Amino acid sequence: MGSKLPFQKPENLGKRLLxxxxxxxxxxxxxxxxxxxxxxxxxxxxxxxxxxxxxPISFGTAELxxxxxxxxxxxxxxxxxxxxxxxxxxxxxxxxxxxxxxIWGMVLPADFFASTVVRYALLVPALVIxxxxxxxxxxxxxxxxxYDAIPIWMEKKIPRVHGRIIRICxxxxxxxxxxxxxxxxxxxxxxxxxxxxPTISAVRDWFRKIGLx
Length: 213
Prior knowledge:
It is a single chain. The chain has helices at 13-37, 43-54, 59-77, 84-107, 116-139, 146-157, 163-180, 187-209. It is an all-alpha fold. The longest helix has 25 residues, at 13-37. The protein is built from eight helices and no strands. Mean pLDDT is 89; it is low at 1-8. Helix 3 (59-77) runs antiparallel to helix 4 and helix 7 (163-180) crosses helix 8.
């Protein structure tokens, strides 16, 4: 009698969906700035930038296709991690980034991002927005991206290896693939590979402490 029904509606679903959508928009906005300043980005964005440079498809389409391939695996191996957040991330994040990237091309001078001052001035706010939006997205607990789901599954299958080590190796695998296809990389790429996960977790825990997610 007291057991939960399957597919029970999550608590505060409206609030969580709002945070999810805002987070996806802000993640797309921040990556649209990290892409042209070419000072490095998160591992998954690095891979998709490489695919965009090496093929005729757009960044958003690259993200959709790679996510789709990984999602097939996750659906077979560990479908419990999949939720509406997974779907929203897969279908919208890359194209939101493309949209803002297109806006910058329309309203800003052609050489705007070539300025060293501009690139470094945009770096910190873009990173801050990215970390906060990632924490908000993951804090909704409405499903993780396929990219994040696979190392979580690997951690369950390889319990002798610390999850952090698995995640770092997974991130570097994508970074190397992206660089081999021509994606720009720098100190920010390295820092994100080692520090992005713990930083997002810390911000997410703070969000939960103040009741935001």
